UniProtKB/TrEMBL annotation:
InterPro entries referenced in this protein's UniProt entry, alphabetically: Ribosomal_mS34 (IPR032053)
Gene Ontology molecular-function annotations: structural constituent of ribosome
Protein name as annotated: Uncharacterized protein
Cellular component aspect of the GO annotation: mitochondrion
Amino acid sequence: MPEYGVGQRFTKIYWQQQEQEESKRVFPGPTFWTLTKILPKANGRTGHWAYGILTWKGRQRMTEEKITGTHKTVWKVVDEVREDGRKKK
């Protein structure tokens, strides 16, 4: 990904599965991180620190936070999101 994926939205596979199950019951909105900053290692590889803005069940937090678990294989790129906060199908 260009720029280490900055600006891209990512979700955990578990969050996405939970959202699909709860959508049958009026789920308030999607949950994902919008990547804002990566601190790469000196050799140019992706570092241990990634920062972003969390949107939790449709509500976006106001501050940039450190994203934990970035090297785990539980992440998935989110499809485009509509203006109302729901994912495009």
